[in-house]
Specification:
It is a single chain. It is built from 7 helices and 10 strands. It is of the alpha/beta class. The chain has one domain: Rossmann fold. Strands 6-7-8-3-9-10 form a 6-stranded mixed beta sheet, with helices on both faces. A hairpin with a 2-residue loop joins strand 1 and strand 2. Helix 4 crosses helix 5 and helix 5 runs parallel beside helix 6. The chain starts with a strand and ends with a strand. One of its GO terms (cellular component) is plasma membrane. It comes from Micromonospora eburnea.
Length: about 220
């Protein structure tokens, strides 16, 4: 899935977060959004993930301009195509590992049966085999981050948006999470990461620096 920003500007109150940003994120690649704290990495990630409307410019998905989409169209994109990995893991502590991986619930709030084969595969790939019935509260921080990635694997997401996915992790878990993101990209997923982790950025195929040049337009380069 091709995700593009063209001439995107975000202004919050009297402050311009960034202006005239252009970035292209392709299937099968990891793209890192980098720069110092406060430069707008997470804000740009949210624009690309249709979580936030830009003040100006276009966000395109497979060539289709999305900034005029209704809420129903954005929800359809999130439900069928996108997965999100948040810095705070986005895990529900008082639910099971299995439910957190599948999030199988109908619009009426009823629990739906999971595809056990897909669930087992997702947990196996993320180093959490046999823990489907365990409460997520029992997991470590690194395990919770891997559980968030298991959710993307279970969903077979076309695009994964990750906000500082290695922040606060120990070196072993940083390496594990980086490898999982690499595997997703190699399988064809579009992986877009906001990060200040230099080692993670180096592992990406492309980087987009919001701090260079100074006017905030940013640059893209091969990783």
């Amino acid at each position: 899935m091709l995700i593009e920003a063209r001439g995107v500007k975000v202004r919050i109150g009297s402050r311009t977060v960034f202006d005239n940003v252009a970035v292209t994120c392709e299937s099968g690649q990891m793209t890192a959004l980098i720069g110092p704290s406060g430069c707008g990495k997470t804000t740009l990630l949210h624009c690309l993930g249709l979580l936030q409307q830009p003040t100006r410019g276009q966000v395109r998905i497979d060539g289709v301009e999305t900034t005029g989409w209704r809420d129903s169209a954005r929800r359809k994109f999130w439900r069928h195509h996108a997965a999100f990995v948040q810095q705070d893991y986005g895990v529900i502590d008082d639910e099971t590992v299995g439910f957190n991986a599948t999030m199988q619930m109908s619009i009426l709030g009823r629990r739906l049966p999971a595809d056990q084969r897909r669930l087992d595969m997702a947990l196996e790939r993320t180093g959490l085999p046999g823990r489907s019935a365990e409460l997520a509260a029992h997991l470590s921080g690194g395990e919770k981050q891997r559980l968030a990635i298991a959710r993307a694997i279970y969903k077979s997401a076309d695009v994964l948006f990750a906000d500082e996915p290695t922040a606060s992790l120990d070196p072993d878990n940083r390496e594990h999470v980086t490898a999982l993101l690499r595997q997703l990209a190699d399988s064809g997923t579009t992986v877009i990461i906001a990060t200040h982790d230099e080692r993670l950025a180096t592992a990406c195929d492309k980087t987009h620096d919001l701090a260079s040049p100074p006017n905030g337009t940013g640059t893209a380069s091969a990783g």
